[in-house]
Amino acid sequence: MVLVDINIEERKKWDLRSGNTVRIWQKIREGEKTRLQAFEGLIIAHKHGFEPGATFTIRKISGGVGVERIFPVFSPNIDRIEIIKRSKVRRSKLYYIREKTAKQIRKKMKQLKSVLSEKESKVEKEDEGIVEPAEELEELEVGQGKTKVFEEGEIEKESLEEKKEGNSDQEEKEEEKKEEDKKEN
Fold this sequence. Notes:
This protein is an alpha+beta fold.
């Protein structure tokens, strides 16, 4: 085991702040050889200043999964740190980023579920011999078994207009019934 001298004064000058995006070059030993591997991400926490046990946490998204690593500031395995982007943040610990990305992932999953259900319904309709419209159009069932096709933005507008028209038709019918009742009396 070989002890590596670390320039402590140089490491104290590193600008490790929450919100910075950094690339850390870490020494990895494989057998007798050593190589450098980069880990790039957002600093979400820097703890204990620059005392001997100081650490900083870096988070990145790899393959749709959040990965966090905690590095000791004075680790001999860290070769160098490159600051890629500096961001102004109002907190020293950015743990809320975990939840924010989780919400975004849940939102994407909901979109994927809706796409999958649409594909399943298209497959079922193809089995029945129903021809589907272009991918840009969506189907909306209205009334008793009637199917109307609208562009994506038109669905809500059309259905609201139909409801208004339906209400006005019902109101007219009620008024006609009242008039007929008056005539009979």
